[in-house]
Amino acid sequence: MDVLWMIPLLLIPLLMWTSSTFVFYFKKCFYVAWMMCLALITIPLCILKSGGRDIENMRIIRFMVRHVKYFLGLRFEVSGWEHLQTEGPYVIISNHQSSLDVLGLMEILPDRCTMIAKKELIYAGTVGLICWLGGIVFINRKKTSDAKSVMADAAKTMLDDQIRLWVFPEGTRNQRGDLLPFKKGAFHLAVQAQVPIIPVVFSSYSNFYLRKEKQFKSGTIRLRILPKIETKGMTSEDISSLSDKSFNLMRSAFLDISDSVTQSNGPLRH
Question: Would the pLDDT of 233 be above 70?
């Protein structure tokens, strides 16, 4: 019987060494399970600290999550830190490739900052509950009227409570090697609140993580924080040009840092 227990213990290192598909599923399952366990530990800490839902809980969440990158063999190189040294509320926008974005988000998340996320996330077990406790703003992407109402409330909350909001303007995960066209919600939010936008760009994950090909190696992710874009004096008529400007700046940075990080990590072997 003891010998039977030894077989899986011997097989796991062997499969980790010989099968990239096994590594992919092992890392993915570990990531999800570990994040749920961390959420379970963090929930009572947040309740003890703040008594319930409070953006200050993001400090605890940030602290608890920052080590996860090491287990997955990931590291971050961040440039442009000085652009986050901006007083008062602002909107952060970034490209969105996978659930791994959470690790980069927690790497640079400023104080009094939370996210706007899809409503379905609140039903993700312990992770959904910790997101709620962290003050994350949930929107129903299927109902435009509901999303607009939430954004209007979020703009008021930003000014009243002096908070920052992180938004993924592509609206969905995208690993196609380029940026998807931006939805306008983040820009309506910034203009309505008359607060600056700070673009943050993640380099492409394609040199270490490919979902369809079942590849998940160790790798480096470059994060580039771009200078803020002011919205003071802008109106709803400026939304399209503001979105286009942000898209072009972020796309240029994405292509630049993705090219350099691919050379650094080397090509992904299939």
Answer: yes
